[in-house]
Amino acid sequence: MAIQNPPVSQTKSFSTVFLIEMWERFGFYGMQVLMVTYMVKKLGFADVDANLVWGAASALIYATPAIGGWIGDKFLGTRRTMLTGAVVLMFGYALLWIPTNNTYFLYLALGVIILGNGLFKPNAGNLVRKIYEGDEVRIDSAFTIYYMAVNIGSTISMLLTPWIRDYVGAHYSDALGWHTAFGVCSIGLILGLVNYFFMRRTLAHIGSDCDERPPVLKNVLGVIVGGLIIIAASAYILQNQGVAEACVYAAGVVILGIFVHLIRSSEPGERAGLIAALVLTVQTIFFFIFYQQMSTSLNLFAQRNVDLDFNLFGFQLFRWIPEQFQSLNAIWIVILSPILVWIYNSLGKHGKDFPVAAKFALGFAAVAAGFFMYGLGATTAINGAISSWYMVWGYGLYSLGEVLVSGLGLAMIARYVPARMGGFMMGAYYVASGVSQYMGSVVANYAAIPDNITNPLESLAIYTSLFNKLGFVGLLCTAIAVAMLPLMKKLSLNHALANVPPVPPVHNEDL
Fold first, then answer.
1. Alpha carbons 182 and 112: distance in angstroms, whole number
2. Is 419:502 a contact under the CB 8 Å cutoff?
């Protein structure tokens, strides 16, 4: 890439990406925190339908970054594609700002958001890698801060947008409340783009080779046509649950088949690492089934069966809106991540750091304890409502599991997969994560509350039945992970002895 004159510090370049990423996550999580409730309360969706529509959208949101990264590398340039994605996302949230309850309009808006996320997400992360290329010490610190941007943006928006919806709804109209809250997500992207405009010089020398050349007209037209096809296909899939289910499960079968083919056709020295990566990927898929409960079953549980007051020693500290409980996930991750990093570093200095497979086992144990916490809360529920503190500790344990399991996902790919397969395997990992999020919505429907049930005592029994079962599934996943530790140790040793060139260091900026 060209050398800036005068030179720009890495910190200034990083700050530009950091800020637009923070505002992008502000918009995305501000939308996500309301979406299932919006479909149920405003559009009249049954719990089952709302969960599945959002599950399909989540799957597509995870799948499209593989396409966006390819476009950034080969056609538009990393920097241009990131900026294009931010603009598309701004329009997607702006569509939700329009006060209409037309369900087809919702599917169209979600299709635009799916496209925008696919263009933005991989290229923002790639820019951070390019800023610190060759500086492995500073890149770890950079991604730690970058990760903080994700959680700062998401925490603020998940607390703010439900409050805006209620405030505007109470003072003007319910419909205006919902759409104004979605509009704030679009405003977040506008602020991010304005900030980028004033700081754009700091990234002028960062990007892929395509960023150094004027855009080729046929490439631009191709991306526009392809983008319109993705929007139309996404909208069609979201409104046809049978098609969504078929696509998701077909993707799962294809990914598994490709994994098996790569293992069978790989060099003998590569095989142990690929098998280890497959085992850990399957475990990660199970984790995302738990993860999807946050925006589906746990969200609706907070609507119906949680005391919204935070009381301590008989005094009311404050009161939350049901959707705001989802912000506990980001808050806990911010608290727990530096603690775990310190523990890992301390153990590593003494040569006692435990392997990734053991961290996965501990993570599943924490997730299981988190879901049992909600069931425990039901034993002291008053009129069908559990104390809000059970949600705090349940989310805390669940978030600990997330940091231990999902936060290590891409690091695991980098460790065990040969460099020549790295790009494909990362794409496959993201698609597999999307498949499992849809499966998580299917699982959430086991606690879907029929329209004829309005008694909190009845809905409490339905929800806690699912959460307790998920707790036992978490224990089963823990037992399986522990049982596979000897195999994983052997595979890791064989992989290390084979001296396979690894994928360059990979960071999961979302988790």
1. 14
2. yes
